[in-house]
Write a structure and sequence with these properties.
Order of helices and strands: EHEEHEHEHEHEHH
Oligomer: single chain
Structural class: alpha/beta
GO molecular function: cytidine deaminase activity; RNA binding; zinc ion binding
Keywords: Cytoplasm, Hydrolase, Metal-binding, mRNA processing, Nucleus, Phosphoprotein, Ubl conjugation, Zinc
Strand order of the largest sheet: 3-2-4-5-6
Number of strands: 7
Radius of gyration: 18 Å
Family: Belongs to the cytidine and deoxycytidylate deaminase family.
Shape: globular
EC number: 3.5.4.38
Protein name: Single-stranded DNA cytosine deaminase
Length: 195
């Protein structure tokens, strides 16, 4: 089942302030890698359900597959929000339990709860566990439009601010993932330069 166009455009729009967007959508592709080739096993999308975040729903879904430990799998997510701290912890733990599985997460927006320190720490731990995390760019939205959306063969047209917001969010994510000692080194360098 493909996602309705309006649902995608509303939930994946990479606004810097996205008030009222309480649901998280996760589009996924699961591939098995065999040497130089890969075989697509499944794709689709999920959204959070009452009391259960979408990331947890996906982890339950994939854990039920009984993955072959002798094969390599690559999972790619495109999410409307970055994971909360608790979900990031669960994903990191899941990745440590499945060393034959790689996860790439492309996020439309960064999620921050009231405690603004928790989510960045969750993203750092997730990155440390081996997940590749990035902000969605035009090509990612284009791919999602053509893969997961009932687009009635209409071409994807980005919205005003798509590129600028992607750049802004990418910089913000880069600052989050930068190890703290590097940030301190940069601050010291700026002080020395008088900046």
């Amino acid at each position: 089942i493909l996602m309705h166009r309006k649902l995608f455009l509303y939930n994946f729009r990479n606004l810097l302030k996205a008030k009222g967007r309480r649901e998280t959508y996760l589009c996924f592709v699961v591939k098995r890698r065999d040497s130089a080739t890969s075989c697509s096993l499944d794709f689709g999308y999920l959204r959070n359900q009452m009391g259960c975040h979408v990331e947890m729903l996906f982890l339950r879904y994939i854990a039920a597959w009984d993955l072959d430990p002798g094969r390599c799998y690559r999972i790619t997510w495109f999410t409307s929000w970055s994971p909360c701290y608790d979900c990031a912890q669960h994903i990191a733990s899941f990745l440590r339990s499945y060393p034959n599985l790689s996860l790439r997460i492309f996020m439309a927006r960064l999620y921050f709860c009231e405690d603004r320190k928790a989510e960045p720490e969750g993203l750092r731990r997730l990155h440390k566990a081996g997940a590749q995390i990035a902000i969605m760019t035009f090509k990612d939205f284009f791919y999602c439009w053509n893969t997961f959306v009932e687009n009635k063969e209409t071409a994807f047209r980005g919205w005003e601010g798509l590129h600028e917001n992607s750049v802004h969010l990418t910089r913000k994510l880069r600052r989050i993932l930068l190890p703290l000692y590097e940030v301190d080194d940069l601050r010291d360098a700026f002080k020395i330069l008088g900046l």
